[in-house]
Amino acid sequence: MAGNLWEYPSVISRIDDAQLVGYGVEATDGSVGTVDKHSDEAGSAYLVVDTGPWIFGRRVLLPAGTVTEIDLETYTIRVDRSREEIRNAPEFDPDKDLGDPGYHQRIGGYYGGPAT
């Protein structure tokens, strides 16, 4: 994978400080849920996606480098991962995972990019 997995690709058109919470998230093969939280922190940008009833209300973290498009008109974010990849991702627990560098490394390794 080219580029930093934890930064939005330079080809993504987005408005700085855009509020992405509530946007729908589309995998390469269908909808996976909605954005519950996002971070634009340099070198550590990500989306937390609430998968809703699709996979029993799990939340997963998607590094910003997986984003291929942010459509500000339809409130949709497209990512370059399949529903199956997202379904099998390590579950996100905000109470323990946000401050855990090991979780960040596991996510980076899972999505095939550098851990940091």
Automatic annotation (TrEMBL):
Concerning InterPro entries, the annotation shows:
Bac_photo_RC_H_C, PRC_barrel-like_sf
Q: Which residues cross the membrane?
A: none
Matching entries from Gene3D superfamilies are given as: Photosynthetic Reaction Center, subunit H, domain 2 (3.90.50.10)
Give the top-rank taxon of the lineage listed in the UniProt record for this protein: Bacteria
| Stretches for region Disordered | 86-116
Biased composition range(s): Basic and acidic residues: 86-99
Q: What is this protein called?
A: PRC domain containing protein
